[in-house]
Design goal:
The complex is a heterodimer of chains A (216) and B (189).
Chain A lengths: L8 H11 L2 H74 L3 H11 L4 E10 L6 E10 L3 H17 L3 E19 L2 E15 L18
Antiparallel strand pairs in A: 1-2, 2-4, 3-4
Helix pairs in contact in A: 3-4
Chain B lengths: L7 H63 L1 H12 L6 H14 L7 E9 L8 E13 L1 H14 L3 E11 L2 E16 L2
Antiparallel strand pairs in B: 1-2, 2-4, 3-4
The chains are: A alpha+beta (216), B alpha+beta (189).
């Protein structure tokens, strides 16, 4: 068997050593990883550019829509304000008390033998009702009965239109003076009536005042 | 199996390569991929918010159109109520208006005096002011007064009489002296 002598042993070892040089291998690995990273970065950059173009499109659409939307929102706000204000004003209009029909009713109740001298009326706080004070004189054979007739008639007339009607005498006193009624002298009585009622629940509307006025 | 033995030089090179790799990773993530991802996230969020706005804008426009239709009667009613308040200070036009209203009902003497003016408590009426007037009629027949009050209540929907006082005039029993307190809602000009 022939003997083989490897005369290039050292060179081959050096070459092998160069091939397994960790720095070289590391640089190659780094280069490979770097290339992968670059590709990944480029892919991401491409996606980002796509997103950016989508964003530009959306922004353009929004720029077109925004003035319309702002105007619509402003108009909606304005309309809502108008609706709410009108609702409240309508509530005030519908909730107010009409005095003309009341004056008509009072005038209807005044008989020839009674006379009103003063009427004070006010809407109670927070529209809780109406309060009236009626002063007057009554005459006849029974002036107190005439005053009572007026009270009952008032009660009846007001109850037809309003709620919780109360008509009460605050004072009722005989007077010394006599009144001439139909040519005859009759005794007189002075009265003060307090009236209270709640107008809510029954709709009242202003109507022309009575043809016949209250005697005063 | 033999494990590769590294020389000192080789170990140094491996360490250097590792440091280089870490530096590369840091630079890559901090200066390249990080900002890119950040801008992408920001843009995506902006797109989402804009698309949501665009989506809601359609419903907003539809809502406004519907509201416009529904508010037709309210707007015309509001315009009508606004016309009840002419231009200028109310104290300049309200008393003459009352005077002419009562004069049309054969009540020649009627004086309206401003008592108070105050804003409304309701926020919806922030554009309106509540005026309280004292209307004095020194002499009127009861029947005429009734007609005049009816006319006043019908022609002035925003006016509400809150107090009414009728007294006989001692020497003229056919006439009465009237005093009333009325409130009106008047738009701020």
């Amino acid at each position: 068997m022939a003997i083989h002598l490897n005369l290039l042993h050292e060179e081959i070892q050096e070459q092998r050593q160069r091939q397994r040089d960790p720095l070289k291998l590391g640089m190659m690995a780094l280069g490979g990883i770097g290339a992968i990273m670059l590709l990944y970065y480029l892919w991401n950059a491409y996606q980002t550019l796509e997103i950016k173009s989508h964003l530009t499109m959306v922004q353009r659409n929004w720029a077109k829509e925004e003035p319309k939307v702002t105007a619509a929102q402003k108009r909606s706000q304005e309309l809502t304000g108008i609706i709410n204000t009108t609702k409240i004003l309508d509530g005030m209009i519908e909730g107010r008390f009409y005095w003309a029909p009341l004056l008509e009713k009072i005038a209807r109740c005044v008989a020839p033998n009674t006379q009103l001298t003063a009427l004070e009326g006010a809407v109670l706080d927070e529209n809780k009702g109406i309060g009236l004070t009626i002063e007057g004189v009554a005459t006849g054979r029974e002036p107190r009965a005439a005053a009572e007739d007026l009270r009952q008639l008032l009660m009846e007339q007001l109850a037809a239109s309003y709620h919780d009607v109360k008509v009460e005498f605050k004072t009722l006193e005989d007077l010394d003076t006599l009144a001439n009624l139909g040519g005859a002298n009759m005794p007189m009585a002075r009265y003060t009536l307090t009236v209270s009622f709640n107008p809510n629940g029954t709709s009242t509307s202003a109507s022309p005042a009575p043809a016949r006025g209250a005697r005063k | 199996m033999t494990t590769p033995k590294f020389t000192k030089d080789q170990i140094q090179k491996i360490a250097l390569s590792t440091i280089g790799f870490i530096a590369l990773l840091y630079v890559y993530s901090s200066f390249f991929l990080g900002p890119l991802n950040k801008s992408r996230t920001t843009m995506t969020a902006t797109i989402q918010s804009l698309e949501a706005k665009l989506g809601s804008s359609k419903s907003e426009l539809t809502k406004a159109a519907k509201l416009e239709q529904q508010a037709g009667s309210a707007t015309s009613r509001y315009a009508a109520l606004k016309t009840l308040s002419p231009e200028g200070a109310p104290i300049a036009w309200f008393p003459p208006r009352m005077k002419s209203l009562f004069a049309n009902q054969q009540i020649e003497k009627a004086n309206a005096r401003l008592e108070t003016s105050a804003p409304y408590k309701q926020p919806e009426l922030s554009g309106w002011t509540k005026y309280t007037w004292n209307i004095e009629i020194p002499e009127a027949d009861f029947a005429m007064l009734g007609k005049a009050v009816a006319q006043l209540e019908n022609s002035e929907p925003l006016l509400a009489i809150v107090k009414l006082s009728i007294h006989e005039i001692p020497n003229s029993p056919e006439f009465q002296q009237i005093n009333m307190s009325a409130t009106t809602a008047i738009i701020k000009r």
